[in-house]
């Protein structure tokens, strides 16, 4: 029998969020790759588009500002997405970090998310 691996589900990482849709925003995810639900995002200053956080960037994407609500395939071009941008608690073991991010960089991103009222528990 083949082994099946279940991926991250839409919103699975959310512990709590504000009533209605106050915690969510519709955004554009920058061309580049497929991102899983729960990916920690930065916002590129020049375009206003979102991408996976990159602590080495100087484009604005180095600052954690949101968490991706559902998976987005932006490998073939910019794509629409939904983010958790405020007034939420997220499960620290369920958010998705970029490969190679260090523990101090994670802590900085967690602090940045807290400034946006997204609390990592």
Task: Tell me what the structure shows.
- The protein is mainly beta.
- The chain has one domain: Head decoration protein D (Virus Head Decoration Protein, Chain: A).
- Helix content is 11%, strand content 30%.
- It contains one helix and ten strands.
- The protein has a five-stranded antiparallel beta sheet, with no helix packed on it.
- α1 (103-115) links the parallel β9 and β10.
- The longest helix has 13 residues, at 103-115.
- The N and C termini lie far apart (37 Å).
Characterize this entry briefly.
By secondary structure, the protein is mainly beta.
Proportion in helices: 10-25%
Domain count, please report it: 1
Number of strands: 10
Rg over C-alpha atoms, rounded to the nearest angstrom: 14 Å
| Number of helices, counting only DSSP H or I runs of 4 residues or more | 1
Assigned CATH class: Mainly Beta
Low-confidence stretches: none
Task: Furnish the topology, listing elements before pairings.
Elements: E1 14-17, E2 24-29, E3 34-35, E4 40-43, E5 50-52, E6 66-68, E7 72-73, E8 79-84, E9 88-90, H1 103-115, E10 118-120
Parallel strand pairs: 9-10
Antiparallel strand pairs: 1-9, 2-8, 3-7, 4-5, 4-6, 6-8
Features:
121 residues, mainly beta, Virus Head Decoration Protein, Chain: A, five-stranded antiparallel β-sheet, three-stranded mixed β-sheet, 11% helix, globular
